[in-house]
Structures are given as structure tokens and as C-alpha cells.
Design a protein that fits this description.
The protein is an all-alpha fold. The chain is built from 10 helices and 2 strands. A two-stranded antiparallel ribbon has the order 1-2. Helix 1 crosses helix 2, helix 2 crosses helix 6 and helix 4 packs across helix 6.
Length: about 180
């Protein structure tokens, strides 16, 4: 199936899910936008981005945890470094890598659906490049070179990885609420 057809199907599925699943009031202490981000990440996370990854990488939950860590589920649209944007805190060179063409900063910052799809592509890319889930997550934050060259002890003590692990538990709870 072509990328444009899959994207269209994902968008249509998301529209149906949004209409059926989002409550009038945001649940679990999340804003409406954060609820939307969890829902969209779950749709994207179960789509073709994760197909070639090992099942134990739990891509849907990992993606949701990364988005929670990076932007508090789309709550913060500009990184502290002033060079990363949107839900996944994507940088322009990263967007170019996974999109194949430049993406304007305004789209990275304000088009949440695009940003989450790019974040999913980059996370998938990182996980395919690394030899473990841990290094794949670190790659998302520090880049492939740093993730590949870190000593095992540095990986075990990495604060970003620890934060994503904690967020994985939150993501499991949030995704379970979608299923109920």
C-alpha cells in the first residue's frame, strides 16, 4: 500500500476514533489536546511505522512515552534549545531526514499530526539503526552516533532513557483508557 493511501487511511481512522472516543471533558487530568495526542500516537504507533520492529519494542507505548517526555503530549511546542519543535521536539534536519524534503518550522511547531508522524518515523529509524530498544530511545534524543558510541554503563545511567521508562508506565495507563 502506498504511503499516501496509508496516510489517508490513518487520517480517516483517526477522525472516526476522535468522534467516538474523545469525551466532552478531557479525562485523566489531560487537556483535550493531550488526549488527542495520545489517541493519534496510538493510531500512528500501530500503523506501518512499527511493522519491521520487534514486537517487544512496544512501539505504540514507546512513541507515546517519548511524546510525553519531549513535549508533555504536545503541551510544549518549542524546545528549550530553540531548534526543536512540536509534539516530538523535531529539529529541521531530522524532519528532512525522515520526510525526504524540508519542513517549515511553522508546520513543525503547529501541525501536531505531521509532527507526531515525523517523530514516529524518526523513532522507528533510530530503533532500526540500533541493536537494542534502549539505544533506539537514546538515539531519538541524542542522535545515532552518540547512541551507538555510548558505553553500556552510560546507557544504563542515561537520564533520558530513565525518564522514558517512567513515562512508559504512564503511557500504558493512558493507552488502556483508550481501549476501555
Amino acid at each position: 500500500m502506498s504511503l499516501s493511501i496509508r496516510t489517508s487511511l490513518t487520517a480517516a481512522t483517526l477522525g472516526i476514533l476522535l468522534a467516538a472516543a474523545l469525551p466532552a471533558q478531557a479525562g485523566g487530568g489531560l487537556t483535550r489536546q493531550q488526549n488527542w495526542a495520545v489517541l493519534y500516537a496510538s493510531v500512528v504507533g500501530t500503523s506501518y511505522y512499527a511493522d519491521p520492529l520487534p514486537e517487544e519494542y512496544d512501539f505504540e507505548r514507546t512513541l507515546t512515552a517519548v511524546l510525553a517526555q519531549e513535549s508533555s503530549l504536545c503541551n510544549h511546542k518549542r524546545g528549550l534549545d530553540k531548534h526543536s519543535y512540536g509534539c516530538g521536539q523535531i529539529r529541521r534536519p531530522t524532519a528532512l531526514l525522515v520526510n525526504g524534503k524540508p519542513v517549515p518550522v511553522s508546520k513543525l511547531q503547529h501541525d501536531d499530526a505531521l509532527n507526531i508522524r515525523l517523530a514516529a518515523r524518526y523513532l522507528s529509524y533510530c530503533m532500526q539503526q540500533m541493536n537494542s530498544w534502549e539505544r533506539g530511545v537514546i538515539c531519538y534524543n541524542k542522535g545515532p552516533y552518540r547512541a551507538r558510541t555510548m558505553k553500556d554503563k552510560e546507557v544504563r545511567k542515561d537520564t533520558y532513557l530513565s525518564s522514558v521508562r517512567r513515562r512508559m508506565q504512564e503511557a500504558e495507563h493512558l493507552l488502556a483508557k483508550l481501549d476501555s
